[in-house]
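Email to the structure team, subject: acetylglutamate kinase model.

Hi all, the expression group asked for a predicted structure before they design truncation constructs. Nothing fancy, just the tokens so they can compare against earlier work. One-line instruction: predict acetylglutamate kinase, return tokens.
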Amino acid sequence: MIVIKVGGSLEGSAELALVEAVREARRREWPVVVVHGGGPRISKRLRDAGIELPFVNGLRQTTAEAVPHVVAALAECNREISESLARHGLPVQAFADGEVVIARDVGRDRTGEVGGVRVEAVRAAAQSGRVPVIAPFGRDEAGQPYNINADHAAAQIARAVQAPRLLFLTDVPGIYRDFEARDLLLDTSREELAMLLASGAFSTGMIPKVTAVLYAAEHGVREVWVVDGRDQDAVMCAALGQSDRRAVGTRLVGCTEGVTA
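Reply from the structure team: attached below.
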């Protein structure tokens, strides 16, 4: 099983690359789980509603007033991705109501963290030949919704389903050691990424992604990739775990024991 997280910034531009990667993985009998973001769509809905929310270390500080707009935006993104895959003949099961991620209240109003993952329905959908498409917001045990960072949700879901490979599809070619100098990391290590993170090398928006990459690599995910979702070669290379580096992207090799595709 592989997990593919589609960044909200792509706004549909990764459709063909995602479809081909999912199709090829399924041809090899590898189940695929898709997790998506929705940041730009959320921002637009909040602007239209006259709501301004600050970001702290790349995380949107969500209020109770903003939650319905967050949920609606993510449901819209979920529907579009699900319909896109279905149009290309890929059977899907949409999880758009926060039923997969268990949210944990960490005292930041309605910005939560992942407290757990309900994997049974996800595994059942994948085992039946469907592609689970998961909106990343979560609900607590009382059913209250919380905004969850999509990168963190994807990393936790990859851990929970014991995925050997996790892909982050975004709107840049990978993780930059130095963005201004266009110094792109290709094959990297947990030690290098952690050092760069601690040194303040990453912009605010990249901090949650790098944190998620490190979390996944430290919790059983064999390979974690960050690639441009519009680059079909890069997405396919990452989905198949090709190590010949014919395509651009950042790859981090994590745990390598006891995992298969």
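The chain is about 35% helix and 25% strand. The chain has one domain: 2-253. Ping us if the truncation boundaries need rechecking.
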